[in-house]
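Order emerges. As here.
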Amino acid sequence: MSQTFKQRARLALAGSAAAAILLAGGIPFAFAHAQEETSATGEAGTAVPTTSIKPTAKELRAKIEQELKIKKDAVNAARENLKTKVETERNTLKAKVETARDEAKQKIQTVKQEAKERLAQNAADRVKKHVEIVTRRLSAALDRLTKLADRLDSRMDKLEERGVELNRARTLLETARTEIRNARTAVAELPVAVAAVITSDNPKESFAKVRELVSQTEASVKKAHKALVDAIAAVKAAAGAKKIEVNDAPSGTGGTETPTSNQ
């Protein structure tokens, strides 16, 4: 029995030793496993970042936001480029339209100016031609009145030699000669007035000057004509008082007519 007890004791001792050995060998493994868990959880149980192949949600969100920002910037850049292109084309088209409008206005203005110049030239030509006709008629009338005045003056000299008093007739004759001189002065100014009409920036105002000169000339011719008629009548009356025949004296105005300009 004592032998059996001894055997059992030896077996127990051997098992204890083996357990101790196994226990000693398992401590490093357990300690290493404990370190891995501590590195994952930390001392206070807080999460500590670990190296992982898969990205985290925060990284994915940041990546998506970055991609969205890039796309948004690209869209904004494309929009700005399109806006700039449209604005440039609009400004180019606007400039072309304005240029075409200005050219059209200039052409219209040129046509109007040319038409105005043609009308002015035609009007000036008509005025010049008309005044030339009036001038010839007035000059011819003044020549006839001058000849009539000279003839009457000659007859008056002969009557005065025969004792006829012709003071009133002399006054009337001098009045006629004065009006003839005034008319000739006005006629001489007509060409200058017509030239002013042609070259003037205000033909209407210049033509008014021509009309005024023509009217003055016609008035002087009429006054000279009347004065000569009255002078002839005065000569006949004075000679009649002396009972002197004046058959050789000019009668009336010798067919002289007063020209009109038909203005």
